[in-house]
Amino acid sequence: MSLLERAEAQYRSLRLTATANHLASLLAQAEANELSYLNFAQLLAEHELKERTHRRVTRHLRQAQFPSEKHLEAFDYRHQTTISKRQVHALLDFGFIDNRDNLVFIGPPGVGKTHLAIGIGQKAVQAGYKVLFRTALDLVEDLELAEMKGELKKRLNQLSKYDVLIIDELGYLPMTRQARYNLFQLINSLYEYRSVILTTNKDFTSWGEFFHDDNVAVPIIDRIIHHSQIFMLGGESYRLKQKSST
């Protein structure tokens, strides 16, 4: 075993995998640039940290279960004039996550609510936060299954480990009594503890329609809007616009 191979094996035993995998090229870079010992040590550390960050972000993006990639850079602010680039960029210091605040995007189908929610979620992951994306329907079914197994509390604890829970398309379908109760349990467990990004096609005055129970709708709304930024989106559906232009 050569000295290089021995060093690579030692780095792997220390779980410095990125350094071990690229040690030869890092040595060549150090020699070509005549780096000092201290600068070379810093080069190794920076390389390892960069690779670990990349692996962590990749893992958390996978765990977030975004249905698709929706980049904020691709959002058409010229079409969606009810929210500005400045307003969205102001959210990217992620103070709303650190303060356990919520974001609520309200508007008709196709105006970019989900695009904004996913785009902000992806940026949050890249900034080091843990995010989970769920449609309201999937989330309700998830909670209902946990409740049937007698594991609702366990599932709520699992969901509360994420810094941000994105709930997409709330209000498109009515909910059963048990589903309303389970959702209240979730929102209550996250209240002032974690952040929620919510998209819905109904303003809060209409929530009683799909909850079929104002006694449940009111406390859920209260907990969501108490610490929240609310964005009302309008305009023509992107999807209809694209279809009509073809």
UniProtKB/TrEMBL annotation:
It comes from the Bacteria. GO terms for molecular function: ATP binding. It holds the Pfam family IstB_IS21. Residues 99-231 form the AAA+ ATPase domain. Keywords: ATP-binding, Nucleotide-binding. One of its GO terms (biological process) is DNA replication. SMART domains: AAA. PANTHER family: ATP-BINDING PROTEIN RV3427C IN INSERTION SEQUENCE-RELATED (PTHR30050:SF4), CHROMOSOMAL REPLICATION INITIATOR PROTEIN DNAA (PTHR30050). Belongs to the IS21/IS1162 putative ATP-binding protein family. This is ATP-binding protein.
